[in-house]
Amino acid sequence: MKVGLIDVDGHNFPNLALMKISAWHKKQGDNVEMFFPMMHYDRVYMSKVFTFTKDFDTCVNADEIIKGGTGYDLQNKLPIEIEHQYPDYSLYNIKDTAYGYLTRGCPRGCEFCIVAEKEGQCSKKVADLNQFWNGQKEIKLLDPNLIACAQWKELLQQLIDSNSWVDFTQGLDIRLMTDEKAKMINKLKLKMLHFAWDNYEFKTYEKLKEFRPLLDFNFRKLRVYVLTNFNTTIEQDLERIYKLKELDYDPYVMIYEKWNAPKNIKQLQRWVNSKWIFRSCDKFEDYIA
Ligand code: SF4
């Protein structure tokens, strides 16, 4: 069988589903490649993660086309035998980084987030580390809320034992942090950790403040997502950003429906997320002056 793969979102971040599909088909002895226009395929998989990405509009010459990913709908899922494949990293020429999920789901159900609807309102272990890691120097975790999982301890221990650099790309829930969890996180070879202060409320601030002295990392490794353009004013956004800087975290602005955001929110994002500007220009008013 000749199989073509289309990463509809582009190539900025490797598409994990396509890497698993590739691995599974190769095991069946199929010929797999990234889709090439003009070629005929027995089957083409199109994967789209983001709803805002435009659909693929090049003509696809294939007997069968399978579309999947949250960019199309929240119901479609990989068949179980594909979901648990070790990813075919060669698809993106990835040499020394592993990508994957140890858990899926999140108990929070934030209004702006699709995780609970797509993966369930409970964080559940779905894999051991060796399902997608085989000695690579870096691990990029895509878990939505790992420390909400009942097996958090066992999973953090697997990450510690790997001795690889760990990047929690999607965020750890500071509201669920405990002394024991912080101690284990300190044992990791941490590349980057993300918390989030998405809503303007003080419980999160208090937890961030309480645990900052217990986390043995430089602010550059302790990033905090700040959601804007959702239900906060620019004054509330600025307050969160200044407070995070004061606590020695590294704020990182996310914009809800960016295409719909006012100019000042986009300026705010540029100021905060361009790290050398943010560190050299203390006040937003000075940046936009
Ligand atoms: S805590 Fe994070 S993953 Fe969970 S629902 Fe909220 S935004 Fe989504």
Strand order of the largest sheet: 5-8-9-10-11-12
Distance from first to last alpha carbon: 60 Å
What small molecules are bound in this structure? iron/sulfur cluster
The shape, in one word, is: globular
- Give unreliable regions as ranges: none
Beta-strand portion reads 15-25%
Q: What structural class is derived from the secondary structure elements?
A: alpha/beta
Instruction: Compute the CA-based radius of gyration.
Output: 20 Å
Mean pLDDT across all residues, rounded?
Answer: 96
Could you give the order of the helices and strands? EHEEEHEEHEEHEHEHEHEHHH
Helical content band: 25-40%
In total, the number of strands is 12
Number of helices: 10
What profile does the largest beta sheet have? 6 strands, parallel
Oligomer: single chain
What is the structure about, briefly put?
The protein has 289 residues and is of the alpha/beta class. The chain has ten helices and twelve strands.
Commentary on this structure:
It is a single chain. The protein has 289 residues and is of the alpha/beta class. It has a domain at 1-93. Helices cover 29% and strands 21% of the residues. It contains 10 helices and 12 strands. The protein has helices spanning 16-27, 80-83, 115-119, 152-162, 179-186, 202-211, 234-246, 263-273, 275-280, 284-288, and strands at 2-7, 31-34, 41-47, 62-68, 97-100, 103-104, 124-125, 138-141, 165-168, 189-196, 222-228, 250-255. Strands 5-8-9-10-11-12 form a 6-stranded parallel sheet. Strand 10 (189-196), helix 6 (202-211) and strand 11 (222-228) form a beta-alpha-beta unit. The radius of gyration is 20 Å and the shape is globular. The relative contact order is 0.08. The model has no long low-confidence stretch (mean pLDDT 96). The structure holds iron/sulfur cluster (SF4). The site of iron/sulfur cluster (SF4) has 11 residues, from helix 3. Iron/sulfur cluster binds next to helix 3. InterPro entries: rSAM_sf. This is Radical SAM protein.
